[in-house]
Amino acid sequence: MDTRKLFAARLQAVLARPYLATALFALHPVESRHVPTMAVDPYWRCYVSPAFVDRTPVEELAGVWVHEVSHLLRDHHGRGDRYALRHGLSGPAERLRMNIAADCEINDDVFGEGLVAPEGAVRPASLGLRDGELMEDYLRQFRLGPHTAHLAWLECGSGADGLPRPWDLGPRGADGLSAQERDAVRFRVARGITGSPGNTPAGWRRWAEEAFHPPQPWRQLLGAAVRAAASAPGSGDDYVYGRPARRSAAVPGAVLPSLRRRPTRVVVVIDTSGSVSDAELGSALLEVTAISRAVGGRRDLVGVLPCDAAADRVRPLCGGAEGVELLGGGGTDLRAGFARALESRPRPDVLVMLTDGQTLWPSRRPPCRTVVGLFGRHHGSPSYDESNSEYVPDGPPAWARVVTIG
Amino acid sequence: MSAYAPPSENPTTETPDTPAPSGAPAPSVRASRLDVPGALLALLRDTTTAPRPDPQLEALTLAVSADLPVLLWGEPGIGKTAALTQLATTLDLPLTTVIASVHEPSDFSGLPVIGDDPAGNGIPMAPPDWAVRLVRAGRGLLFLDELSTAPPAVQAALLRLVLERRVGALRLPPGVRIVAAANPRSSAADGWELSPPLANRFVHLRWVHDADVVVRGLGGVWPRSVLPTLDAGLLPEAVAFARRAVCGLLGARPALVHRLPSGEALRGGAWPSPRSWDMALCLTAFATAAGASRDVLSMLVRGTVGDGPGLEFLAYLDRMDLPDPEDLLADPGAAELPERGDLRQATLDAVVAAVRSRPARDRWDAAWALLARAAETGAPDLLVVPATTLATLRRDNWEVPAAIEGLAGVVSVSQRADRAKVRALSVTRGNR
Fold first, then answer.
1. A2 touches chain B (CB under 8 A)
2. What distances in angstroms separate CA B240 from CA A62, B59, B245, B285, one per listed residue?
3. How does pLDDT run across A244-272, given as a tens digit for each residue?
4. Are B131 and B170 in contact, with CB atoms under 8 Å apart?
5. What is the DSSP code string of B86-127?
6. If I label B57, which of A81, A239, A260, A369 is the partner at 20 to 30 A Cα–Cα?
7. Which of B430, B419, B355, B373 is nearest to A15 (CA)?
8. Which part of the chain is the AAA+ ATPase domain (chain B) (predicted)?
C-alpha cells in the first residue's frame, strides 16, 4: 500500500481542518483488501483498500479521511444501534439506510474550504432532502428504492452504522481504542472547538457543544418537573386527626394524627396572547393532557386558565384537551393569571405556566410550586413589543423551575 | 424482583454439585407429585458461569469498598439485585434488601413504644427488625431497592438513612455498606429527583444491561467477573497519585472546583464541588490501588463530579501518562514514544515546546534525534508540524544535525500534502 500517499492525504486533511488533528491522528490505519474504499470500526481503526489509495488523488483521500473520522466523532454507530433498537429495525438493508443517512449528515457541511468532496459522496439534495439535519431525521424521510440503487456499494464500515463486518478486528484486536479512550479523543476535539470557536464551521461547533450534553427532550423534562412539583412533600399531604395513625397501636391512650394524602391539584395557565403562535398553543394543549396523566389520570384535578392581559376563569379539563377553548389574543400579563389561579377553590398545589416569556411576572413567590414551560424563541426574531421598543421583558423569576419548550 | 439468575441461586457458585432440595428423594416417603417438577426446576437452574470483565460491577465494588453512598440508576429488571448478590458474596457481607416502596416513613424513623414512665423517660423510637439484626451483626450490605417508586416522605426518610446511617435511635455500625437503586427520571412513573445538594453526596452509577450477556445467560452461561482487590503494597503510591492528579488538575483549572448544575437537563446528576472532588480523589486512590482500568475509573469519576469535569480529569491523567519531555531529551536514543498517533504527536509537541522554552544546542540536536527516531517507527505526517517548528528555533551558529536525513520521508510527504492543498483550494474555490 502506498502509505506515503495515505499519510500525505491525512496531513492535508489536518492542514485544512486543524481542529480535527487529534481525531485524525488517533485513527489507526489498517490495510485491508476486503473494503471497497475506506471504512472505520467503532474502535477507531480505519480499514483502507490499497487499490483505492492508488487510484484516488491525494486531495480526495484527504476528504475521505475527514469523512470517516466524522462518523466516529459523531458516534454514528452508537446512534444507529439506539435508533435500530428503538424502532425495531434489523437487517443489512436498514444498516445501509443508516450509512446513507449518516453520510448525509456529514457531507452537507464538511467539504469545501480546502477540502475536496470525494467522488460519489452522498448529499441530502441527491435524495431530495434538506441540508443541515441529523441522521435520525434523515432516516425518517427516505426509503431504499431504485433512486438509491447507485448507493448500494456505499460502505463506511461498522463505525458508520453499527453492524459488525467480517473484516473487523473486533474489540479485542490490536490497536483498538477502549471506551474511555474514545471518549477522551472526542472530548479533546470538542474542547478544542469550544475553546477557540473562531473559524470553525457552525455544524462542528454545535456538535462540540452537544457531544457530551445531548439536548434532552423537553417533554420529559417538563413532565419530570411537574411530577416532582406534584409529588414533593408539602403538596397534597398533611397530618389529620380524622383517622387513627398506624402508630396508634404502639401508644395506647394517645391520639396521634396520621399522614393523609389528597390528590394534587394542578392549574395550567396558558398564555394566549398574540405573541404565541397557534402551533405553540397546539403543543401546549398536548402537554396539558400529558400533565393530567402525570398527576394520576384524573382530569377533574387539572384546571386550565387561558390568560392574555386579563385572566378568564379556571375551567376543569373534563372533556380532554380538545374541549378547552382558548380565548384571548391581545397583550400579555400573566400576573392576572397567577392571581386568578390562586383564587380558585380548592387551591392549586402546582401552577404550570405555558408562555413565551413576553410578560410581567409576579413580584412575590406564590404559595405553591411553579413550573414554567417557556416556548423557545429563535435568536433574531422580534422578541419584544413592536410598538414599544423600550420594553424588554424580564426572564422568569428564580423561584420557578423553567423548562424550555421546542 | 429485578434479578436475572442471581449467581447465589446458582449451584456452581456455592454448593457445586448439590441438586435442589426438592430433587432429593426421601427414602421412606412415597414419591411426591412435586418430584418431577422439582427435577425440571433443578435442570433449569443448572447453569454454569464463565469469567468476563464487567466494568460497572468493578466500579460498584470500588465505590462500596470506599464506603461512599452509591446510587444505581437503572431500568427495572436488568439485574441490579443479581449484581448486589454477587457483590455481597465477594465482599463476604450478608445482604439485606429493603424494598423502599412497601414501607412507611416510620419504618425508617422508628415507631414510638411506651415504657414505664413516658413523661420521665421519654418515648423511645423502636427501629425495625432488619436494622436491629444489622447492628447486632456489625457488618452487612444494605440494599435499598426501588427508591424511585416510594412515596416522597419515605424517600426523605431513606435519604437520612443513606447519608447519616441512622434508623430511628439506632446508628448503623461502620461495617455496614449501603447501596441504593432508582429508576431513571425518564422512565419513572412518578418523579424521583434529587435536589442538587443531595445529588452531590452520591456516586451515581448508571446500570445498563448487555444483550449479549443476557442471551448467553439464558443459554446457560452467566458471567462471573473477577472483582478488584486492593494491593496492600500499592496504598501509599495510590494516595500520592490521586492527590497529584486531582490537585494538578484543579490547580490548573480552578473553575472546575465548584460549579452548580445549570439547566433542567443536568438536575439530579453529579456535579463538581469540593465534597465531590474529595470523593473523586478517594475513588481514584481505590481504583489505582486495585489496578482498575481507566474505563472503571472513568465511570466512577464521571459519576461523582459529572461528565465534563470527569472527562477533563481523565484527559489530565492521559497527559500525566505521557513521557516527560526532559527525560526524552536527556536520552533520545532510549526514548519510548507512545504508539497511538495523537499521543505521539502530543509528546513531540511537548518536546519542541521544551526546547523552545530553554533553547540550547544540545537540546536542539536531541530533539532532531527524537524526531528521526519517530520517523523510523511511525507515521510521518504527524512529524511535520513539530519538525517545522523545531527548524524555526535554529540559531545562526547551529549546524544542521546529521539526524535530519532520517526525515527525508517526512519532507516528501509534506511537499505532497502542500501540492494537494493547492489543488484542493483551486477546486473548492472554483465551486463557489
1. no
2. 45, 21, 9, 8
3. 776 677 667 777 767 666 777 788 888 87
4. yes
5. HHHHHHT--EEEEEGGG--HHHHH-EE---S-HHHH---EEP
6. A81
7. B419
8. 66-212
